[in-house]
Each structure stands twice: as structure tokens, then as C-alpha cells.
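Task: sequence design from structure.
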């Protein structure tokens, strides 16, 4: 029995250094990918505060002093409504998981008569504007649940279009005009003294 030997060539100078550098690069890339994936998972599946903190760092997102976040999808023109005005809006409300809990193509709303975050957002908009807003639970319904489709402590996400708005004085004049014409909602016509 004989043993055959195979000569091993010597390693070139610098090859071991290249191997260690390559290994270090692979480890850095792997750590960066893990960090990015973990960060995204925390943003999507973490607490409301984590979600809002991640959202606030995205391009175009503005955060107000109250904590409301919004992004202007389409700027409007002219003045903004006040808390005493009535706004005509189109909106779609979603939860963080994307489920739609409310939507309307055209509805009047008293600006000061909706949840604080929605009211604040309407007062930032101008006629014709379209915003996406993120309302923290404390500016929404908080611990109260208005219905089974909307769990307590939910972050509310709305796409809102401000179609038009009128002042409280204009609304009062319209209501008086409707009452005088006997349109339902006003007093019945033919009552003495009317």
C-alpha cells in the first residue's frame, strides 16, 4: 500500500486578508437587512406610539403639536374653515390593518362637532384640498368604541377631500330659508304667525 500525496500550493499573500474583508462585508450587509426588516415589522405591528413615530419620519408627513399627522395629497385654495363652520367633505376612514370602517362621498359636517383630530385637520385644509391624516387615539375616540367596527384606542387613518364649507351665519340663513319655504326639517307651513 502506498499513499499518494498531493502537493498543496501556498496561499498567495493578501488572500487571507481578502477572505476576512469579504466575511466582514457579508456580516454587515446581513445585519443591515435584519435591522431594516425588524424596523419595518416594529412599525407595522408595534404599538400605536411606535407606528406613529415611524410614520412621522416618512417623506411629506407633517406632525402638529397635538400629535396629529397629515400629508397633503393635493393642496386646496383660499381660506380654511373654522371650528364654527360646516364643511362638505368626502372621506374614507381606515384602521392600521387597512380595514375601512366608514366612508362617504359627500357629507356635511360641523367642523367643531367631530373628533378633535378630524376637526384640527379640517381647519388646516382649503377648499379643493385632499389630505391623508393619521389621528392618534387620544385625538379620536380614545378608550371609547363607537361601534364594533372601530376598536377602542384605535389610530384612525382618513383620506379627506374638502369639497366646500360655509360659515355658521350662512348655515343659519339657509336653515331659516328652508323653514320659510316649508321644506322638511322646518316648521310646517300654514301655521298662524309663520
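Answer:
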Amino acid at each position: 500500500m502506498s499513499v499518494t500525496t498531493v502537493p498543496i500550493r501556498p496561499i498567495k499573500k493578501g488572500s487571507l486578508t481578502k477572505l476576512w474583508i469579504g466575511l466582514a462585508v457579508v456580516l454587515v450587509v446581513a445585519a443591515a437587512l435584519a435591522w431594516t426588516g425588524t424596523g419595518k415589522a416594529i412599525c407595522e405591528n408595534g404599538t400605536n406610539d411606535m407606528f406613529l413615530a415611524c410614520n412621522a419620519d416618512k417623506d411629506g408627513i407633517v406632525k402638529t403639536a397635538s400629535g396629529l399627522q397629515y400629508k397633503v395629497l393635493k393642496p386646496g385654495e383660499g381660506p380654511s374653515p373654522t371650528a364654527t363652520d360646516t364643511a362638505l367633505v368626502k372621506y374614507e376612514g381606515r384602521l392600521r390593518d387597512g380595514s375601512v370602517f366608514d366612508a362617504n362621498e359627500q357629507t356635511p359636517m360641523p367642523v367643531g362637532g367631530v373628533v378633535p383630530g378630524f376637526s384640527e385637520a379640517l381647519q388646516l385644509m382649503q377648499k379643493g384640498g385632499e389630505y391623508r391624516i393619521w389621528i392618534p387615539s387620544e385625538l379620536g375616540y380614545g378608550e371609547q368604541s363607537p361601534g364594533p367596527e372601530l376598536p377602542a384606542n384605535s389610530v384612525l387613518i382618513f383620506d379627506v377631500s374638502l369639497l366646500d364649507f360655509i360659515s355658521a351665519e350662512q348655515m343659519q340663513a339657509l336653515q331659516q330659508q328652508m323653514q320659510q319655504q316649508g321644506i322638511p326639517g322646518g316648521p310646517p307651513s300654514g301655521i298662524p304667525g309663520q
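The radius of gyration is 30 Å.
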